[in-house]
Amino acid sequence: MGSSFRAFLNSPVGPKTTHFWGPVANWGFVAAGLADMKKPPEMISGNMTAVMCVYSALFMRFAWMVKPRNYLLLACHASNEAVQLCQLSRWAKGNGY
Question: Is the whole model's pTM more than 0.70, yes or no?
């Protein structure tokens, strides 16, 4: 095993911690949002999409402020924020806003 891989394995944000597995699991939100792009805007819940936007914005800040800084979580929630804002835009246009 290479020393750089071993360093990653044992790092404070490596796969032995929730700082790694939490963001990995959260990529499911991004995948679900992307899959929902094919659905008609009438099926989008404006309330839930707005909540997901707030949730991702809060966790982006958390990922930036936590020590050690969690770039994987930041990338995950930035991606989810983009997807959810796109969905919110589709919902708003579909409802005449």
Answer: yes
